[in-house]
Amino acid sequence: MPVERAAGGTSLIDVLDRVLDKGIVIDAWVRVSLVGIDLITVEARVVVASIDTYLKYSEAVGAASSASRPTVDSKAYEEVIAENAALRAQLQRRVAAGAAVRTRRRTTARS
Questions:
Q1: What are the angstrom distances between the C-alpha of 77 and each of 36, 48, 58, 81?
Q2: Residue ranges covered by each domain of the chain
Q3: What pTM did the predictor assign?
């Protein structure tokens, strides 16, 4: 008994053939932050295509920028870099001060 199809219907094989012929690119960018601190950042790009299609359009896929990814303001970036440097210097001063206190305690305890 032959399988009958509807006249206007599409089969799974037709859909798969079209996807492999044209290809699909799914580009995702997700950031989870708490009180302005980034906890998790995930970037993903999934490409579903035949090898021939991928090789044909790989340059375009690799050069495509994420539409959903926010742009980084260069001024804000410079501010973060400067704040990071200031915090590192402050931390180094405190570590050095703590080491000096521990050294003084050891020398007075031995005397």
A1: 14, 35, 31, 6
A2: 1-70, 71-111
A3: 0.35
